[in-house]
Each structure stands twice: as structure tokens, then as C-alpha cells.
Amino acid sequence: MKNKIRWGIIGTGWIADKMAEALTVVEDATLAAVASRAKGKSEEFARRHGVAASYGSYEEVAVDPDIDVIYIATPHPYHCANTLMCLRNGKAVLCEKPFAMNEREVLQMISTAREHGVFLMEAFWTRFLPSMDKVLELVASGVLGEVRHIKSDFGAVTGFDPNHRAFNKSLGGGSLLDIGIYPVFLTLLLWGEPDQISAVPHIGSTGVDESLALTFKYGDGRIATLFSSFTVNSTVESHICGTKGRLKLNRWWHCPVPLELTKGEEQPETIQFDYVGNGYNYEAEEVVRCLRSGRKESDILPLDFSLRLIRLLDRIRKEMGLVYDADGRG
Ligand SMILES: NC(=O)c1ccc[n+]([C@@H]2O[C@H](COP(=O)([O-])OP(=O)(O)OC[C@H]3O[C@@H](n4cnc5c(N)ncnc54)[C@H](OP(=O)(O)O)[C@@H]3O)[C@@H](O)[C@H]2O)c1
User: Fold this and answer.
1) Distance CA 102, CA 280 (A)
2) Could you tell me the distance, in angstroms and rounded to a whole number, from the CA of residue 30 to the centre of ligand 1?
3) Is 39 near ligand 1, meaning CB less than 6 Å away?
4) CATH label of the domain that carries residue 22
5) Which domain holds residue 233?
6) Where are the alpha helices (DSSP H) in 127-265?
7) Same domain for 147 and 243
8) pLDDT by residue (tens digit) across 98-118?
9) pTM listed for this prediction
10) What ligand 1 atom has the least distance to the C-alpha of 254?
11) Could you report the per-residue pLDDT of 6-49, keeping only the tens digit for each?
12) Measured from the CA of 15, which atom of ligand 1 is nearest?
């Protein structure tokens, strides 16, 4: 039997645990190594998930000849440097969202991947959920009529801690880059770049957007209203509204959940999916598929989409005057 694609993980936090769990249901993948800044943490993670190798530095996994692909699960300001280190060592990379802090960093990641001829993808897991393909299919089918409005929010109360990456500016804190990125992603996927943006943030005591209201306007009158927050328990739904009907992505819409289609004044119809795993397995499967077929990027989530997404996030941050340390580095 051929060897499975061998994964390494950098970082041992919340999302790293989810990916370790997800990889257990990806047939052609095995989690072979984990790296932490602290050896004790990687050993503990390795014990928890049955991983063979545990390293006390990120460099060690990047140079491990037995690893094919590395998943980057560190806070946003480290994504670029961690990714570059892996790419330069010939490792394929799946890097968490936001891909990096700004366009400059993303361009550097893309050019390094191309220069070294290695695979690179943003870990935008929602794009790979079966529900997202259904959304695209239903919108294209015309069942909603002309889609004129998108309403999407992601507000989840996160206990205030100035040192936590959600609030700490030096760790890339702020709702836009952490969770507001989902409504922005959905709108970009369906409609592309807006002609006008308005951004109304509430900047908290640590200098980052704790809440953010966004309006995107398109030349032909389409409007998206988007919201993100660490201080509000909002609906976490998305509504795609057309001239003939509405499609609702149910609560925790960025996760594997059902859709609800309403045609005109009819009763809503629920669309269920036979989801497998915790949902992070779908993006991992795409990476495996790409590696097996020698691709350097995904057709489903191409690097150009990630570049357009970070440009849009930069544009929104400019609108609200939010600057991070990474923006000053050149
Ligand atoms: N796709 C999703 O659904 C999803 C969900 C949550 C988060 N994320 C993304 O994943 C990334 C990590 O989020 P998380 O919630 O897993 O964060 P987390 O629980 O704080 O874990 C981050 C890990 O990064 C490492 N790290 C490196 N430098 C660090 C520093 N200066 N401060 C703190 N940790 C540092 C740490 O691992 P070691 O100590 O072992 O080195 C830490 O455990 C973020 O970019 C976030 O946007 C994505």
C-alpha cells in the first residue's frame, strides 16, 4: 500500500486540536509530527492525538524529511514567517485564516511558494463544506431570482482578556481578522469586490475592533450588510436574498450546518447534508487531492482568491483606520 500523505502541525492551540481530530477521518492522511515553542506542549499534544514525533521548535518540523505538508495553526502575525520557513524547506503548506496580516505578506507567501514550486493554500475551511457548493449551485440556478442583498454576521461573546489573541493587538487582535473575515469571504465569493465600503467599528481599550458593522455597495445597487463582534451573541447566520426567494445559512453558518431555502411566500425547506468528521477534514482532503495530483494550488480556493480577500480586508482596515505592526514592516 502506498504511504499516506504525512502531515505536521505548527502550534498546539485550539484549532490545532480540531485539525488533529479532523485528520483521523481523512483516508489518505496521517498526522506524523507536531511542533510547539515548548517541547512539553508538543509532547502532551502528541500523547493526546497519538502523534509519533513531537518537536520543541517550529524549525524542526519544517526540516523533517518525513513530512509532506505542514498546517500552520499559530496567531495571525506569525502566519507569514511560519509559512515562508516551511515553503523554503520544500514543504507544502496549509495556513490558517487570515492567510497573513496584509497584502504585502500574502504576496511574499505566494511568490515564495511559486519560486520553490510547492503547494500553498489558505485554510478557509468553510469554502470546502458541501453546504458551500450547494449555496453556489442554488444561487446560480436562479431559484432566488436576482440576488440583491446579503446579510451575514458572526458575533460570539469572548470573555475580555487583553492578553488573548482576540483582543491583543500584537497578536493580530480584532473581530474583522478573526471572525468578520467569514461574512467578508461569503460576500467576496458570491459578488466579488464591492464598489463602496463603509466600516463602523467599535474600537475597545486594546485598540482593536471589538465590534464592526460593514456595508458593501455594488454599482448596480446590490448591498451587503455584515457584522462581527466579540461582545455580542448575534445570530451567526447568513441570508442571501433575491427577488424570488431567500437562502438562509443556519446558525454557525461557517460550520457544517443545514441550509434553509424559502421560495416566495412558501414554507422554508430545509436542506440537510451528510457531513463527515468535524468539518476541517474537507479542506485537508482538498490538500491531499492537490498533492496527489501534483498541483501547486487548489482550483476551489486559488491563491488569487486569498489575495483578493486580504486586499479587501486591508481596504476595510484602511476605512476604519486600524493599523498593525506588520503594516509598518517592509
Ligand atoms: N478555521 C477556523 O475555524 C479557526 C478557528 C479558530 C482559529 N483559527 C485561526 O487559527 C489561528 C490560531 O488560533 P487558535 O484559536 O488556535 O489560537 P490559540 O489557541 O491561541 O493557539 C495558537 C497557538 O499558536 C502558538 N503560538 C505561537 N506564537 C504565539 C504567541 N506569541 N502567543 C500565543 N500563541 C502562540 C501556540 O502554540 P505553541 O505554544 O505550541 O507554540 C498556541 O497554542 C488563528 O490565526 C485563527 O484565526 C481558525
Assistant:
1) 24
2) 21
3) no
4) 3.40.50.720
5) 130-274
6) 130-141, 175, 181-191
7) yes
8) 999 999 999 999 999 999 999
9) 0.98
10) 3
11) 999 999 999 999 999 999 999 999 999 999 999 999 999 999 99
12) 16
